[in-house]
UniProtKB/TrEMBL annotation:
Protein name in UniProt: Uncharacterized protein
TM region(s), chain numbering: 12-31
Keyword Transmembrane: yes
Keywords: Membrane, Transmembrane, Transmembrane helix
Top-rank taxon, per record: Eukaryota
UniProt organism field: Tenebrio molitor (Yellow mealworm beetle)
């Protein structure tokens, strides 16, 4: 039978403390021996080992501390004997911290500070201070000047009625047995002090550092109070500060509810659980939604107000947790897809599909031409009739005749047009200033179901940009020009997911949506946003590597793409260039061609390029 010893945590801490002192104090200019205070127990409390071990690490990692010494139960410090630490700073200054450590379970009554209480009496510690000062000149143990001694009473408990003490000096008002005791002691919370900087007082979520002084000038305790601090390590410091902040002198109190615990007595409270609870506070709600921002899948940030425009029901989904996270900066909904670039990702560009304007004259198809607001007299660029899209949609369903905009052409423009005149009189194009919304284009296509309909955007009097088509695109391919590059800033690659199993058979639209929208794990807010975007057809589906699908899955994918298109969803499909004709014939839409890799791309980004081989070559 074998036995395995496990060290007691306190004993292990003692050992760590001993090792730390050995490692970090051997650089001291000289070792000093301190006399143990009479009546102190050698192993003392755990604090006398844990605190030095902690500050050994703190001082050794502080760039401003050149050297330090430590002792416990030091007789030189009287009642401040528990832990004594002297540090030497990089600027040559020496400081001494003398700590009295008090561990108690109950709150510390304020009355204990002004009476003869054995643990917390200020009179007791003032006497100890004066004794240390008297003996300072006799001692050769410290390099620090006495004014650089810092005396600290440290307790794990909290001070009674601490919420009434602020950052301004206020009178300590102790009570004993229901009677008020007159006192001339003033107290305040003190954050900006030398002790806090080096001892980390007040750095954590709990703890308050107090400074004390006498109300009467010329007090014999004045020097003691200048060098004395009272620190309470209380667990609820932040909560009590928040509650005090909410106190508005009898007016309504506002609370930020962090945890829903002990809610039995809050039935009449107005609880802030989600954004909708703030609507009653109109001004605050407006400020919040107009200043906080969110990012969907790593895209450019938008204001919370813009997100809510998708659907007002989101106010019931955005909880206090999301609001707090938004306060720290841009809040991310879903995964940041921009972090999923492959190792050898190369930025690419997507070209516009440009078409010669002769297509208007030579094809008997219907064209909707959208143009920018800054284009004047656009109708002069066409030798066919033109009609405004709004007038066309208004008059066409009623069977009324449409009056076309008369054109004024220069004599040179009318040369050689007579032969086409008879044909041109029956043709027209629909002009859409500022753009043609998808809904309007769909309506026009329904009204002209026997024609091929095309939406193009006016670039100049020679070039159009193709946007979309209904019907055959076979003939317009003959008018396609060489492309100009357009940086694609709106496309975000996503992680590769294996889909072939699902698409081996065809599915209805609901099955397709359920599958595609459940691929990626999401929290409740992201799930709600995706559901709303799907309902409003504001999602874009990216089908990458279509040519890499096995034969048994191609039919299912094509069926899914057509189902989604009929429902009004936008989609992008990518494949190798040799699949271009197949895609165009299958979906009756023109295909974009992504710019090819340049020689520089191939040289700089290929994982096993000749450059990499040369860099590892070894001379014979």
């Amino acid at each position: 039978m074998s036995w395995r010893l496990r060290p007691h945590p306190v004993i292990l801490t003692y050992y760590i403390f001993y090792v730390l002192l050995t490692l970090f104090c051997t650089t001291a200019s000289s070792w000093c021996t301190f006399t143990s205070r009479g009546g102190a127990v050698d192993f003392g409390t755990d604090y006398e080992y844990l605190v030095p071990a902690y500050y050994s690490l703190v001082f050794s990692l502080d760039d401003e501390v050149v050297d330090f010494k430590m002792s416990t139960n030091n007789n030189d410090m009287g009642d401040f004997d528990d832990v004594v630490m002297e540090i030497e700073l990089i600027n040559g200054e020496h400081h001494v911290f003398a700590l009295k450590l008090k561990h108690i379970v109950r709150p510390i009554a304020q009355v204990n500070l002004v009476t003869n209480n054995k643990k917390f009496s200020l009179k007791k510690y003032s006497k100890a201070f004066k004794k240390v000062k008297t003996n300072y000149g006799k001692s050769q143990s410290y390099s620090a000047a006495f004014q650089n001694f810092h005396f600290i009473l440290f307790s794990n408990s909290l001070l009674e009625k601490h919420e009434e003490i602020g950052e301004d000096w206020s009178k300590l008002e102790p009570f004993a047995d229901g009677k008020k005791i007159d006192s001339d002691i003033l107290i305040r919370k003190f954050d900006d002090c030398f002790e806090k900087k080096f001892l980390n007082f007040g750095e954590t979520d709990s703890g308050i550092n107090y400074k004390i002084k006498c109300e009467k000038e010329g007090s014999p305790d004045e020097e003691f109070f200048n060098q004395f601090s009272f620190y309470t390590k209380q667990k609820t410091a932040k909560e009590t500060e928040a509650i005090k902040l909410c106190d508005t002198n009898g007016r309504k109190k506002k609370f930020l509810l962090l945890e829903e615990t002990n809610l039995e007595d809050t039935s009449d409270w107005t609880i802030f659980r989600n954004l909708s609870d703030l609507r009653s506070a109109t001004n605050f709600y407006n400020v919040l939604t107009q200043r906080l921002s969110v990012s969907v899948q790593g895209r450019l940030s938008i204001l919370l107000k813009e997100l809510l425009q998708i659907d007002e029901s989101l106010v019931n989904t955005i909880t206090i947790e999301e609001i707090v996270l938004m306060l720290d900066g841009t809040f991310l909904i879903g995964d940041d897809c921009k972090k999923h670039f492959p190792k050898y990702y190369v930025p690419r560009q997507v070209p516009k599909i440009l078409i010669n304007n002769e297509i208007i004259d030579e094809l008997d198809d219907l064209f909707v031409v959208s143009y920018s607001d800054d284009v004047d007299n656009i109708y002069t660029n066409f030798c066919v009739n033109t009609v405004d899209i709004n007038k066309y949609l208004l008059l066409k369903p009623q069977g009324a005749s449409i009056s076309y905009k008369s054109k004024q052409f220069s004599a040179s423009y009318l040369v050689n047009i007579e032969e086409k005149e008879q044909v041109m009189n029956s043709k027209f194009v629909i002009l859409a200033k500022g753009g043609c919304p998808k809904e309007q284009f769909d309506e026009i296509c329904l009204m002209n179901s026997t024609k091929n309909c095309h939406h193009v955007h006016f670039i100049d009097n020679q070039i159009f940009e193709w946007m979309e088509s209904r019907g055959s695109i076979n003939e317009i391919q003959n008018y396609q020009l060489n492309s100009k590059e357009l940086k694609s800033k709106d496309f975000v690659p996503d992680s590769d997911v294996e889909h072939t199993g699902f698409f081996k058979k065809e599915h209805d639209i609901q099955e397709i949506l359920n599958y595609l929208l459940s691929i990626e794990g999401r929290d409740a807010l992201a799930e709600q946003v995706v559901t709303l975007l799907s309902f409003k057809k504001q999602l874009i589906f990216l089908w990458d590597g279509l040519d890499e699908l096995p034969k048994e899955s191609i039919g299912g994918v094509i069926s899914a793409v057509k189902h989604l298109a009929l429902e009004g969803y936008s989609q992008w499909l990518s494949a190798r260039s040799n699949s271009k004709n197949f895609l165009q014939e299958t979906f009756q839409t023109l295909a974009l061609t992504i710019t090819q890799f340049s020689q520089e791309n191939q040289y700089c980004n290929a994982p096993f390029s000749t450059r990499a081989l040369r860099s590892t070559a070894v001379a014979p």
